[in-house]
Amino acid sequence: MAHLMLLSSDLLVSLSPETMATQCRRSRTSFTEEQLKILVQAFSQNPYPGYTAKQRLAVEINAEESRIQIWFQNRRARHGFLKRPKKNLDPSKDHASPIEKIQEEPGVLQSVENRRCRTSFTSSQLQTLKNAFTENPYPGIDSREQLAEEIGVPESRVQIWFQNRRARLRVQRKRGLEEALYQRQNQGQDL
DNA sequence: ATTCTAACCTAATCACACC
DNA sequence: GGTGTGATTAGGTTAGAAT
After folding, report:
1. Which residue has its C-alpha nearest to nucleotide C4's C1'?
2. What are the tens digits of pLDDT across the range A2-35?
3. 3-class secondary structure, A84
4. Which one, A62, A88, A107, A174, has the greatest CB density within 10 A?
5. Taking the mean position of all CA atoms in its chain, how far away is CA A74?
6. CA neighbours closer than 13 Å in the CB half-sphere of residue A69
7. Of the candidates A112, A190, A121, which has an alpha carbon nearest to the alpha carbon of residue A162?
8. Cα–Cα distance measured from residue A122 to residue A152, given in angstroms and rounded to the nearest whole number
9. In angstroms, what CA-CA distances link A163 with A11, A38, A42, A77?
């Protein structure tokens, strides 16, 4: 019998039930009315805050910076900020606003606003991460938290590391598959 | 049940150091 | 000039809480 595999499109993983049990999301944070007010206000000023701006917000509303980042991601995805022509009502704002300019040139804003400075992992930290990855490429919040503690790096960085690792493994596999296919086709032609 | 939305994901890309 | 890789984006999915 084929068991429980094929998790999330094409990264194949077999997870034991007990591993799945500890597979858990971080508990949902509920922002207070006041926090939301500040976030929404900030979003209207700039839907693409840089790292320092997010940090400032984080201390202001007493939340983790990573939660702020997620909040802005979700907000941009849903509440389309200053979408194109608002249906056809209110023709009063058909002129270019700063934000619209930003939308035209997505690359500009990113370089203008500062990024979080790149964390450089030591080789031993990387070894720990890689070991954990082979064991489970989709660690839940508990595992990530534990790993973060172990190697002394914020949990959010661990999460990003796993995302990047999974992505690169996927493209690597895809490339390998394509090469194999190409070789097979060539073989058929040559001989 | 439906609605809202935080958490999480992928895919693509940016940024930047290094060779 | 490429390669490697952390950070960010758009946009889709999952699931917890309020209605």
Report:
1. A168
2. 233 334 445 655 555 555 545 699 999 999 999 9
3. coil
4. A174
5. 11
6. 12
7. A121
8. 11
9. 12, 29, 28, 19
Task: Note the pTM of the prediction, 2 decimals.
Answer: 0.80
Element (H, E) at A14: none
pLDDT tens track for A45-78: 999 999 999 999 999 999 999 999 999 999 999 9
Question: Which of A1, A8, A24, A4 has its CA nearest to residue A16?
Answer: A4
- Type of residue at A79: H
Tell me the β-bridge partners of A7.
A11
Report the protein residue whose CA lies nearest the C1' of nucleotide B16. A118
Give the N- to C-terminal CA distance of chain A in Å, as an integer.
Answer: 39
- Determine the protein residue whose CA lies at the shortest distance from the C1' of B6: A28
Which tokens belong to A129? 């991460």
**Which residues does residue A175 pair with via DSSP β-bridges, in sequence order?**
none
Q: Does nucleic acid strand B have an atom less than 7 angstroms from the CB of A163?
A: yes
